[in-house]
Hints:
Blueprint: H1 12-19, H2 40-43, E1 45-63, E2 68-87, H3 92-95, E3 100-122, E4 128-152, E5 165-186
Antiparallel strand pairs: 1-2, 2-3, 3-4, 4-5
Amino acid sequence: xxxxxxxxxxxxxxxxxxxxxxxxxxxxxxxxxxxxxxxxxxxxxxxxxxxxxxxxxxxxxxxxxxxxxxxxxxxxxxxxxxxxxxxxxxxxxxxxxxxxxxxxxxxxxxxxxxxxxxxxxxxxxxxxxxxxxxxxxxxxxxxxxxxxxxxxxxxxxxxxxxxxxxxxxxxxxxxxxxxxxxxxxxx
Length: 187
């Protein structure tokens, strides 16, 4: 006994699976419109992501004498993200362009170095003299690369087939920022 879609009005997923077969016959008039079905994202889509992250910090304190102390703080981050996405001909992004491969690479890094010299002196029981002087240095790098290709003649290579693309493009952006600050405070 077959399940009738009308008998299950609340189970929209079951109705969708029954009405959308996995393989569309070539002589079907609807085959020219779209080959996408519920299994297309499983069979004709790849998303391979490789993330690498490193975070580090350092904090050094030195009491020079009774009144002076020195602090050095340094830290940095490195992030590398490589992502490859393949959209085959069963999915809308790759359907009209005979497959679409998008590759993006992001490289970010930053580091900060902070030097602080502190002066603290108790003059009386109720009065204290304090001063801080320091220099902060930070630097940021951001590099992004986007490459795409389409019009593939061989679909089996998927994310490894960029050299097989008939058309493609590349976009690269690089940003760098450097800042230095001097701090002096007395109270």
